[in-house]
Structures are given as structure tokens and as C-alpha cells.
């Protein structure tokens, strides 16, 4: 039952985040971001057991082949995560992603170190990450933040930040920018903050 409720949540998340979504059947069959998340959930469960880490990595690589999205089985991902378009997304082993996060194509949640420690970002709840953004290192992005397209983020950002530029700088979101888009006509593209 838990599997079906999560599946339903994912499909609803896709519909609410993508104005091009035309229904659950099409989303289920055609959204590579959803397929990558579902494969990750399986590989992450396998990763928890040291005896099944090799099969987890193989299945993860097969998912990458199918979707163009690379999510390491060790990454921790919250509920209602959505990847729009997806191609070129990379999420590293020690990345932690909160609930209701949305990312676009070409996003990297990567490391800056070869040390076997926490080396990937922690992303808070309800964060939106624009296309091509690179979030690197063991940094924390606070909840309700938005990262602009092509930003290179290497420093922590507090809750409610707008993060843009190379290297990225942050500023507080205004009250208008914090209000969720409830109608596709009210959608705010994170690239607008560039």
C-alpha cells in the first residue's frame, strides 16, 4: 500500500510542477524524471545492505542509460521529488534532498573532494533548482530557496534565499516570491532571477 501511495504522490507532484503534464497515464509512461526516481528508490533500498551494493550500482547505471539521469544509490531523497526534463542531472552519493524539491535538466549536486566523507549538498524542503545549476560540496541550501539557472553554488544559503550567479550569491526572497504558484499561469521560472 505504501508503494501505491508514493506512486500516486509522485504522479500528483509531476502534474502540479509541470504545466505540460496531461494526465497520470502519460506521466507514468513518458516522464523520465519519474522513472529515474522510481529506480532510485529501489537502488537506495538495495544500497542499505552492504551485500547488495553491487547490484544497486548496476541497476543505477541501467537507470542512467534509460533516462539520462544519474542518481547514486547512496543519495537520500525525500517525498514528492520532481525532475523536469531530466537529461544530464547528476546527484552524488552523499547528497540529501528534502521533500517537495524540484530540479530541472543539467543540474549537478556534486562533490568538491575525494575524501570518503559527506561531500555532496544538503537541499532543504521546497527548493527549486534551475536548469544547469551546479551545487557543489557539503553545503546546505535552506528550505524554500530558489537557485537560478546556471548558478554555481559553493556556499551555504539560509532558508528563503534566491541564489544566482557564478560564483553564486544569495539574497532573501520577498513575500511575493515565497508564495507558491497554485495556477500554471502563476508559475515563476527560477531563471528569472539571473
From TrEMBL:
Pathway: Amino-acid biosynthesis; L-cysteine biosynthesis; L-cysteine from L-serine: step 1/2. Signal peptide: none annotated. Keywords: Acyltransferase, Amino-acid biosynthesis, Cysteine biosynthesis, Transferase. The keyword Transferase applies. It catalyses: L-serine + acetyl-CoA = O-acetyl-L-serine + CoA. InterPro entries: Hexapep, LbH_SAT, Ser_AcTrfase_N_sf, Ser_O-AcTrfase, Serine_acetyltransferase, Trimer_LpxA-like_sf. It comes from the Bacteria. Its EC number is 2.3.1.30. One of its GO terms (molecular function) is serine O-acetyltransferase activity. Gene3D superfamilies: Hexapeptide repeat proteins, serine acetyltransferase, domain 1. Belongs to the transferase hexapeptide repeat family. This is Serine acetyltransferase. It comes from Paeniglutamicibacter terrestris.
